[in-house]
Amino acid sequence: MNKKIYSSLIIFFSLNMLTNEHLMSLNLPKNFEISIFANNIESPRQMAETKNGFVIVGSKSGQSIYALHDNNNDGTAEIKILIAKDLQNPTGVTVHKNDLYFSEIDKIWIIKNIDNWLLSNEQDVLPEKEIYIDDLPSETWHGFKYLGFGPDDNLYVPVGVPCNICLEPQSKDKRFAAIHKYKDGKLVTVASGVRNSVGFDWHPENKKLYF
User: How far apart are CA 84 and CA 157, in angstroms?
Assistant: First the structure.
């Protein structure tokens, strides 16, 4: 199954509280099938997959990060593992070089070698997390983060403006209303005038950023 397809379906079902009965009413392209991969996930927003096939799920309004795994290869996540808890809107998640990065409103954490912990028998103790960035704006309006590593191996982070139509916040703090990359311990602005980006990706050939 295409990874991007089932990632989108997890969000769709969670937001709409759909069941298998509702699936019959959906029109699918020829040769496509549809099923519920995971249920009872609180407000999933971004997902990432580890090298060993664990799907890491962030939460827009929840307080925890979970890992899901289809242990039987039947298209259903039988395993749900708590990775981190007591977080503030841990929306963004991404995996880069076997390390897990996840966001709160004003900070980003890293858990190194996440698959090693997920494959161990030590899930009764949460993995050690370390601060990666700890001084992002704390405003919650448009403060949810989306994370991704670019072709340059730098972490990209959007910072939404804490309003709808306004100029004052970004005139006081240039980090607002922009997408940045974290390079050499500093945020470098990549695109400004961006009210609130909730997703982005790079063209596989020309490496242009789309958001």
Answer: 20
pTM check: above 0.85: yes
144, two tokens = 């949810």
Could you tell me the pLDDT band of residue 166, with boundaries at 50, 70 and 90? confident
Inter-residue contact 37 to 14 (CB < 8 Å): no
Which residues is 189 bridged to in the sheet? 180
Residue type, 139: E
User: pLDDT class for 17, splitting at 50, 70, 90?
Assistant: low
- Cα–Cα dist 114/97, whole Å: 10
The pair of three-digit structure tokens given for residue 68, joined into one six-digit string: 């899901």
Distances from the Cα of 61 to the Cα of 6, 64, 89, 136, 193, angstroms: 21, 9, 5, 19, 26
On whether the CB atoms of residues 57 and 10 are closer than 8 A, the answer is yes
CB distance 50 to 115 below 8 Å: yes
